[in-house]
Amino acid sequence: MSDRVLLKVYYFGQILLQTSEGIKFICENPLDVVIPFIISFEELKGVICEKIDSERARKISCILYRYPIQMFGGFIQFQTKYVTDEASMQEMFSMYIENRAQIAFIELYVEFEQSEADRNIVREDYNSDSEEEFESNYEFVGPDGDEDQGDGNTAPDVTEVANALANEVPFEEPSFMRVLDLEAMHAPEFPEYMTAEVPMVADGEFVVGMEFSSREAVIKAIKDYTIRRSVDYRVYESEPLTFYAKCTQYGSGCDWLIRVSMISRKYCWVIRRYNGSHTCTRATISQDHSKLDSITIAEVIKPLVEADPSLKVKSVIAEVQSKFNYTVSYRKAWLAKQRAVEKIFGGWEASFEALPIWFQAMCHKEPSAVVHFETMPAYQGDEVVRDIQVLHRVFWSYYPCIRAFRHCKPIVQVDGTHLYGKYKGCLLVAVSQDGNNNIVPIAFAIVEGETSDAWHFFLSNLRQHVVTRDGVGLISDRHESINAAVERSNGAWSPPRAFHMFCIRHIESNFLRKFKAPYLQKLVVNIGYSRTVREYEVRYQRLRERGEAYTNWLNRIPREQYVLAFDGGYRWGHMTTNLVECINSVLKGARNLPVTALVKATFYRLNELFTRKRLEAEARINAGHVFSDVVTSKLRANQIASGNIQVSCFDRQNEVFEVREMPSGLEFAVDLRGLRCDCGEFQVDRIPCRHVFACCANQRLDWKLYVHDVYKMEQIRRVYRARFRPLDNPTTWPAYHL
């Protein structure tokens, strides 16, 4: 027996999970190294570093090796283990010797320590923000109460899941998230999932000597050939190194057969025997094909699912019909879509296991992020399973979002939306808005449903970690669970700390459901939009004249919760939950994904959003603009309209004025010190209305003093000033022990 072994070393590449052969190493130029069995661990690392000869490969941080496991039916699946010392290296050699008939060499994946120069670049990038007062109050604390210092390497028992997080799906924004003025990235997003090219000759037939990159490519090519010609085959031998199939009518009018084998010295599969094309005929025409299975369909529809994970099953059926001219069953199409989702975004169960690992890594890279889990015990029958917990709820908010809210309008809109993947639940979202009418998501939660307990969990964490200032307006629909959660908040979401108000569109919908009177919907909405008490009284009376039952129903809702004239200005003119529903629409595709993929989707979306809006704000400031686009156009319109307004009398000492619009003769009182005008616009929008402009012009006052700070470009830039930190390679993550 030889005393040497061939190593195939992969580096600066990726580790793929859930491939047809289990775990797989890939890189651009694998390195072949021959070593003796008696080599030491330190000598092994030295040989690898010397052979690679790169500035980035000075010191090895970890080594993994890939070993085969015999599965049911003779199939082989590969798993990985760490090489950390002499003992684990000898174990690797022993496994190789035992499996020498199946593997001709040992495959290693090597990671290298980050250089000090690289670390300095990262520090400079994230320590350059000099804005004053914010200090970290949020830290990821383990169950024993000790702060996680983030030392150590990734724990071996979760290595596979952790690697999947970084390598199954690159940390880029998925195509279905490219909405709301975000330009599409041009680079392919999931290159490792691009279908391997299948070599075919001109007439579409196989030939002896044709080579394939993998066993998976062989089977795919044979299936495609079979489906395309409306024939069928039966597998006679399917071994780790051989695949042998014959036509289903072999010996009865058709001699088609194919044998493909693995050639170790060439690292590829080669056709060793082929009898030529089929000579059989079919007695009947079938609407389906036995080889057109969900695995084959999943490969075909992967680009569609990647672009839109909410793809309808009927669209899958239509795609298969157009590609293969077969009509598959609903069940097969549904299974194919689920397989495609798992291929692209990771498995459903593995995603739940990966979620706490991903969150811990996020908090390790950015300690000011907030994550809060609630779990339940796992049961097997009536017995509690030790060391396993079931996800019940999770709340999270990214550090840039927490910091952004301090510079946004003091309003929060919340809403829930259903998840449509293999495991159901609800995604709860909270958003705010900056001074240029950009939506700013500030917090998320995955919960079991829109229950009172779930909303209490979400709103409590939102108040404790994100919405920490008082005088905030909370806008939601009239869901009983939200109302119950607000009542349970011990005043956290009640006056004077916060003001809970309702979406007028939901009130309109409830009104229509109650009375079936669509001709009154607009009047109900206009009552809510009344900016002055007089407007409210006129519209309310009109509704009452059409029936007291209508106003009696409306009277059950406090006016301050749905009418602008009575909300104290805490709505900032927002009458609906459109902002948060817009984000739910953006996340429509993500709601079909496994949980970790869903969380990562929010990360990608927000990272791109903050980067784009930060650059836009800086460009506008550099161009000399003081206020946002939205407020500038409105200020200009109000300034022009003020030319037809007369200031009839004023109290300079108290800054109170009376103005008259011409030619209508309507009079309004303006209180500059109290930031109020009888028209209602000044206190709702926090910008000078046409009457305020007239008063400032009359007294030669600077109207810019009466524009709220939230509309200033400097303040808008602060909204997006904090940056999302990349999570880097999983080998840099702290060990996960739960």
TrEMBL record:
It holds the Pfam family DBD_Tnp_Mut. Residues 668-700 form the SWIM-type domain. Residues 127-136 have a biased composition (Acidic residues). The keyword Zinc applies. Keywords: Metal-binding, Zinc, Zinc-finger. Residues 127-154 are annotated as: Disordered. PROSITE patterns: ZF_SWIM. GO terms for molecular function: zinc ion binding. This is SWIM-type domain-containing protein. It comes from Arachis hypogaea. The lineage of its organism: Eukaryota, Viridiplantae, Streptophyta, Embryophyta, Tracheophyta.
